[in-house]
Task: structure prediction
Amino acid sequence: MSRYNPSLVVHGGAWEIPDEEVKAHLRGVQKAIEKGWSLLASGASALDCVEETVAVMEDDPTFDAGKGSILNTDGSVEMDASIMDGCRFDAGAVAALRNFPNPVRVARKVLEETEHWLLAGPGCEAFAVRHGFESVPVENLLTERELKRLQILINDPRFRSPHAFGGKRGTVGAVAMDKKGHVAAATSTGGTPKKLPGRVGDTPLIGCGTYAEDGVGGISCTGWGESIMKVMLAREVAEHLRSGKPPVDSAEACVGILKARAGGLGGIICLDRYGNPGMAFNTPRMARGMMNAETDKPFISVD
Ligand code: ASP
Result:
């Protein structure tokens, strides 16, 4: 028997999810887990699993990723995503990507097809087209909801990014371990409300929003990106896991560090080197789910 525990943890963002949106978040996480778990259970790699799981949530306008992304101050949509393969200790990421509905898939291509880790802006868009991704008009990514919200925020000079985590919507992420014990993580976001065009957050930065290393574990973070970058949150969690601290304790300790060192708000999902899960957040709610071979149905919650 393998001592590895094929597992999948997923998040759909840490913020004050209003009661009337809870159902959509639970449903969205459930759908993502069903997709990811069916792959893992049939022997897919952790890397394929996290890509597909995150793509399901990018397609769901409930979340701040792909369709449904938060808008920049000028009404444009720019998205960040990253994916890391703990087996090869290699990663791919995209930043400020426009016009592609599944940034995580472009990030995967950066991992597979280049010697780089992070492509940004127009060069990244040209890369995506060269690799067969279809560029879509911005209208395909826009929602009425986000257009209305931008109007409100533009007229609110007191608004600052951290306020958003009382009332934005969620970035998405997944961490998986496969039957062979390989770990992978992926995260995707439309960013934070009222962000300037060109702003890049923690999500595409390896060690900030995402990290995976076989023998250590995998991590995906969500929350106020600038605070996550200050403490390099995913790497901080990895060091706790590396030291042998249990994943729940590691996630909780690192959310504490985020708050204490950077006044940060956010959440963490992780798996340790054996596939045991940990989750923690310091926002009012975090949409999240978990499935492994020992649970007969997924755990899904926002509270
Ligand atoms: N961390 C993301 C960013 O700052 C936002 C989020 O996780 O909700 O871009």
User: Anything to note?
Assistant: The radius of gyration is 17 Å. The longest helix spans residues 19-41.
